[in-house]
Amino acid sequence: MKISVARKITLTLVVVVVLVSFFVNVGTGTLSSMGWEAIAYICPLGALETFLASWTFVPRALIAFILVAVGVIVLGKVFCAWLCPVPPLRKFFTFKKDTSVDDAIAASHKALKAAGATEGAIAIEGAIEPLSAEEQASLVGGSCKSGCSSCATQRKKLDSRHLVLGGALLSTAIFGFPVFCIVCPVGLTFASLLALWRLVGFNEPSWALLVFPVFLALELFVLRKWCIKFCPLGAVMSLLSIPNRLFRPHVDTKKCLRTQGIDCAVCVSVCEEELDPHCMDGMHECTKCGLCVDKCPAHAVTIPLYIAKKKQLEKTKTLAE
Amino acid sequence: MLALGGVAKYAFGDTPVLRPPGGQDEKHFIATCIKCDRCRGVCPLNCISVANMNDGLLNARTPKLDYHLGYCDFCDLCIQCCPTGALKDFDPDKEWVAPAVIDRELCIAYQPMGGGCMKCIDGCPYDAITTDTQGRPVVELDKCNGCGYCEYICPSNSYRVFSGIRKRAITVEADRGPRIAGSQQAQAGGAS
Q1: B7 and B70 inside one domain
Q2: In this predicted structure, what is the pLDDT of residue A101?
Q3: What does the pLDDT look like over B129-147, one tens digit per residue?
């Protein structure tokens, strides 16, 4: 099964659970907090905000927050790709599809074919320069020391998302209520669904039915690149996932077209976090979405449970020899 | 974010909202509620509704009690579910959600011709509604804990001429301060 299919199923299950909780009195909740009675997941940003707003540390919230934090450290930013409804929502309502990724995949397949016919490196028309020997060496090293072309825009540990996060927490501390929750696109998605349900099921029309989707649309389509530029929830997760080492994408350099000199960068162009699975720098931002695995024309990318850095280096060394 | 916090807090004035049991400390409640919808979802009697934009930007999406849909039997499920402690432990014998208030304009029993309606008096699970000398209902504030059963069963909107308003003759109204045992009797006497 493709990873993207597994993700779709997971998110659908979550939405179904939320919708069921609208009809049946089970109180499983939404993605802000989901669980059974006292045992529940809690939104880490929401929890932080309540701590700052009330200056009380309710044991239940604190324990849930710590457990979620440990989960993010172990699993990385999985929430963003597997549970968050925002990226699929944006994709669903974007009618003009972006074809650049498909073009890149098509070009790589073409190059793969061409490489089969004529051995050696092939330069594709209109694409970037093929890698030099030096760049290839840096690629297999697993870390970008001699800035190759594909990692030119490397992500920093702190960026605009963390600024938004800081602002949200400061504002929360000053005004004494969870400020970001008001505009959280995850919350607004479920709030819109709930408003619709209250209208249909209870005849409770309200401005919320109009205001929430408008807020949501603003975030999705005006503040484009919400996830990597603005989302403070992603910012919390990215900070927590810095120590994450499990489920990091791994490139089999034997299979990878790029290390063979073919100018393929499909894994980079499909990555919504703008990462390169060849390069371990900034890899804590990986959401384990598996697009690089699904789309790699040479099936060179996998997401193993764990690969020691040392082992990875050894492997590439024997390959070089 | 700073502007948003300020605007939400001060520009869209927050109207008092009737909170589920344990959420009466409004400052604490609004600081800790993350609008997760769990208390509303778990309520077996469906008396927890959701506040919307009309209740202010700050209150939108937070839980509010709607005694038209059900009443509260203090089963504490919402308090058990609340992940952030916004709903604290609640003692229905000592605290109240808010007191029930009778609107004499709307109440059938208070009409000049006399209505004789005894619904809330008979129904109150805490015997907190007694009658005055003319058989009209009076709320005993030291017994009332705001469970909302009286509002739930009040037939004023059904039996009287339809006036287009949703409000019933007896309502549990938010923002009446905490319940203080002892001092309520005088208040009740003054009201009747």
Answers
A1: yes
A2: 77
A3: 999 988 899 999 999 999 9
What are φ and ψ of residue B111, in 5° steps?
-75, 150
Burial A105-115 (b: 16+ CB within 10 A, else e): bebbeebbeeb
Domain assignments of chain A as residue spans, ordered by start: 3-75+159-240, 100-157+242-320
Name which residue leads in pLDDT, B158 or B129: B129
Count of CA atoms in the C-beta half-sphere (13 A) of B124: 23
> Per the CB < 8 Å rule, is A208 touching B60?
yes
CB A310 within 8 A of CB A260: no
Q: Which domain holds residue B107?
A: 100-172
Do B58 and B6 fall within a single domain? yes
ipTM exceeding cut-off 0.90 for this assembly: no
Distance from CA of B142 to the nearest CA of A (A): 31
Specify the DSSP class assigned to residue B192: -
CATH number of the domain within which B162 lies? 3.30.70.20
C-alpha distance from B110 to closest chain A C-alpha (Å): 30
Strand-pair category, A301-302 with B100-102: unpaired
Contact B164, B81 (CB under 8 A): no
pLDDT exceeds 90 at position A52? yes
Q: Would you call B34 and A176 a contact, using CB atoms and an 8 Å cutoff?
A: no
Tell me the pLDDT tens digit for each residue of B36-47: 999 999 999 999
Phi then psi for residue B98, to 5 deg, are: 175, 155
Q: What is the mean pLDDT of residues A77-101?
A: 88
Q: Which of A32, A29, A30, A19 is nearest to A180 (CA)?
A: A32
